[in-house]
Write a structure and sequence with these properties.
The radius of gyration is 16 Å and the shape is globular. Helix 3 links the parallel strand 3 and strand 4. It has a four-stranded parallel β-sheet, covered by helices on one side. It has a two-stranded antiparallel ribbon with strand order 1-2. Strands 7-8 form a two-stranded parallel sheet. It has 183 residues and is α/β, with parallel strands linked by helices. The model has no long low-confidence stretch (mean pLDDT 91). The protein is built from five helices and eight strands. The protein has one domain: Rossmann fold. The structure holds S-adenosylmethionine (SAM). S-adenosylmethionine (SAM) binds next to helix 2, helix 3 and strand 4. The site of S-adenosylmethionine has 24 residues, from helix 2, helix 3 and strand 4.
Length: 183
């Protein structure tokens, strides 16, 4: 059987450079499904991400469910789950800036009575023992040993406002393997 290799492509690099242009040192407001979200610097931007919108398309009735949004970024998936009726949503991310951003969005949508946000490397800081649904828009690009293999080099002027590489790249698929085992 032929082994699939991840070959960095010039096309990916140029698309990534274009995507980087949406990042800024300001706090921006974006609208997704008619809902406004704050986006902080150094946090994965969801509004133009096809992975986020694919998951959003599958999100239907959350009435009464307890939800974990792993790798929450801006908190977009967890907040939409809460707005669709989830009784409790825990949002977790390894990136402190993402948790700060998520807390601001929780406040913006007045959801603090039904939601929580914590910095956590996967389940390390999650004390709850069970959820009805776990959402994880995982870092989706593979690199064998180093994120730089994934051919995602931000343009120099955007380097300081980009999220950390683990927002996009999963070296050796270690994160998704750990996630599946620990979940
Ligand atoms: C593709 S982004 C998705 C962000 C957001 N859920 C969305 O859909 O817009 C992946 C997120 O996973 C987070 N992440 C990566 N590794 C993680 C880990 N070991 N534990 C928790 N979060 C992690 C990143 O910081 C990033 O915010």
């Amino acid at each position: 059987m032929k082994k699939l290799e991840n070959t960095p492509s010039k096309d990916l690099d140029s698309r990534f450079k274009k995507y980087c242009e949406s990042y800024s040192s300001n706090i921006n407001t974006v609208s997704v499904q008619g809902i406004d979200f704050l986006v902080y610097p150094n946090v994965y931007r969801a509004e133009s991400a096809s992975t986020t919108s694919t998951i959003l398309r599958t999100m239907d009735d959350f009435e009464g469910l307890r939800v974990l949004d792993m790798g929450c970024g801006t908190g977009i998936l967890g907040i939409i789950a809460a707005l669709k009726g989830a009784s409790y949503v825990m949002m977790a991310d390894i990136n402190d800036a993402a948790i700060e951003n998520t807390k601001a969005n929780i406040e913006k949508h007045q959801l603090s009575h039904r939601t929580k946000a914590v910095t956590s490397d996967l389940f390390s800081n999650i004390t709850e023992k069970s959820f009805d649904i776990i959402l994880f828009n995982m870092p989706f690009l593979y690199a064998k040993e180093n994120p730089s293999e994934a051919s995602l080099t931000p343009p120099e002027h955007k380097a300081k406002v980009m999220p950390p590489p683990e927002s996009f790249v999963d070296v050796g698929y270690k994160t998704i393997r750990r996630f599946m085992t620990e979940a």
